[in-house]
Amino acid sequence: MNNSKPDELVFLPLGGAGEIGMNLNLYGLGPKGAEQWIMVDLGVTFNDGSMPGVDLITPDSAFIEERRENLLGLIVTHAHEDHLGAVPYLWSRLRCPVYATPFTASILRAKLIEADLIDQVEINIIALSGSFTIGPFDFELITLTHSIPEPNAVVIRTDLGTVLHTGDWKFDPAPVTGPSSDIDALRKLGDEGVLAIVCDSTNVFDPGQSGSEADLLEGLSAAIAECTGKVAVACFASNVARLETISMAARANGRDVVSAGRSLKRIERAARENGYLKDTPAFIEQKDGGYLPDDRVLIICTGSQGEPRAALSRMAAGDHPSITLGEGDTVIFSSRMIPGNEVSIGRLHNNLVRRGVRLVTPKDRFIHVSGHPARDELTEMYQLVRPKISVPVHGELRHLNEHAKLARKCQVDTAIVIENGAMVRLAPGDARVIDHVPSGRLSQEGKRMVPMGSEIHKSRIRAMWHGTATMTIAIGADGQIVAPPQITTTGLFENNSDPILLEAIDVARHAATGAASTVRRDNNALGEVVRVAVRRHFRNAFDKKPVTTIHVVRVQ
Ligand SMILES: [Zn+2]
Ligand SMILES: [Zn+2]
Prior knowledge:
Layout: E1 7-15, E2 17-18, E3 24-31, E4 36-42, E5 45-46, E6 56-59, H1 62-65, E7 71-75, H2 81-84, H3 87-94, E8 98-100, H4 102-114, E9 123-125, E10 131-134, E11 137-143, E12 152-158, E13 161-165, H5 183-192, E14 196-200, H6 216-225, E15 231-234, H7 240-252, E16 256-260, H8 262-273, E17 284-285, H9 286-289, E18 297-301, H10 311-317, E19 330-333, H11 342-354, E20 358-360, H12 375-385, E21 389-393, E22 395-396, H13 397-409, E23 414-415, E24 422-427, E25 432-436, E26 441-445, E27 448-451, H14 455-466, E28 468-476, E29 486-490, H15 499-514, H16 517-521, H17 523-542, E30 547-555
Parallel strand pairs: 2-22, 4-7, 7-8, 8-9, 13-14, 14-21, 15-18, 15-19, 16-17, 16-18, 19-20, 21-23, 28-30
Antiparallel strand pairs: 1-3, 1-24, 3-4, 5-6, 6-26, 10-11, 11-12, 12-13, 24-25, 26-27, 28-29
Helix pairs in contact: 4-8, 5-12, 6-7, 10-11, 15-17
The chain binds zinc ion (2 copies).
């Protein structure tokens, strides 16, 4: 370590800056190039449909993997997938202790059991509002409100100043589950002096307040009261407060609650383990739900975004194992439409309407509030904390830019808009971007992680657009073809007797026999000559450039 260099405090997002999803934030402290690092959150994002064969995507953590002996710990702010979902996939590359509050730790533990990592990962459970120290960093958690139990802001105190990393939050005076936001702790922190805030930008374009979870009971009860048949309410499984409110609204209408979906079961278990849902009767198993009269049942289900494997999509398609929906039944969407999901949600709505199901959405009734701060809440946060520097995160570039403008209006000296990979020096001196490090995305494909945009994905896309053709040519010792070339294709022909396919075999034969004798002696050169000819043949025939592979086999 070179101690002659002055210490710096830097912030470096490798995920979540310039996008909503897969958060990975790094804070570094020490002489430049020899920092000690801590990570805040390690989440996933989902394929937006642009890459075939990809489901789950994580940040590319290569930068910190190379420095993992200087990575002192991972603090998880809350249990949403975009904040902890990548731990099972990337932890083995990082191997650092993890810090989380009890509910978040329960969710993480369940994931690590599934990934067979539970015996390896050190999970340190921190109480709500707890303080702890890792190396040169002192931490304090501040309880906020969001759409899941135990959302924590992380106060990071260092010799060079204090940072407030907000995580996802809102100011909800009546969050139904858990305490309301600890406004006093934020004000005290502001009085103490805050160098920088790294803050949620999701709803920066929404005016006013996000609204309170407790206010939804009335709208949900009224929506359910209008129903005569079965009622299904779709929401995010992790929104434990919403589960409680829906359950209250159901009971007010004389309905018993059935839960449908594996993730709901997991969340219910973690919530009850940690003392949440105390006044909510246990949900009835979905397999027993079919025995209740239609007007006495309410089904809580996942799949509000049209996810094809989720319970609601299966009910809409009529292939749910135990619950059917039809004429006279109602589906209430207690969730927002996440941008990018419009097509799949549209398909889900159409499938339900086709079965005669009535739909109620947040456009019809007050049945959903967001878990992220609207503009007035952001302003209040700035008034309480009074940071010198603002680094907006958890937003696309347009959100970050708007958030920076709002921060400047709130008397913040320096608001810095950055995307993944930009390293910001917070102290000493003026805050600014001092470096750009490699960042990217990995797709989870079974046990391996594949860099997005790699040759694997490029060739997969080429094969999808153009099809594939694989040919085997057997060449004798004299350089002549000794057996008819064999060809296999995907995405090109209905059957093996297509004339263009048969012509391709002739094209290959001509190309091989017409090649110079030096080429015919060299397998690679001969393969290439044939490949070019066969590919040109397909291109001329139907304007496709299939991924073409030629195997040349020597027969002695
Ligand atoms: Zn988030
Ligand atoms: Zn969240």
